[in-house]
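[Meeting: bench + compute handoff]

Bench side (C.D.) handed over the final construct sequence. Compute side (W.E.) agreed to return the predicted structure before the next meeting so the bench team could plan truncations. Sequence as handed over:
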Amino acid sequence: MALTYSLALKIDRLSAANARIGANGIVSLYAGTRPASPDAVPGTQPLATCEAASTFASTPTTAVLTANPISQGVGTEHATASGTVATWGRISNSAGVGVIDFEVGPGKDFVMMPDAVIKTDQPVLIEQIKITAGN
């Protein structure tokens, strides 16, 4: 039997995620295999990190949480000069505690990026982050 949640519960779940991210959250992009959950320590160093706004997102009123603008990051030394493809990412609070992990790549609508190839010392732009509550 499938579960279906009320809109109020979906909003509560998104609001809880927004509160856990809090002020000045961090969006990190990685290559390799995504861990089982945001509670696990990543097996690799980030290819890039970008800072979220002082408020990650406004309080959701629908089943969608859209992040406020994310600052442009720069590819780290863990990317390469020719580029390393980001395959997953993590949104953490300002202390680096993981809250949400996500996939990166073509056809992924959670995080919108012009390119998932991260190059050392080159700008990294996240155009939009949109979290939709399921069911």
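W.E. noted at the follow-up: Residues 7-21 form the longest helix (15 residues). C.D. will use this when planning the next construct.
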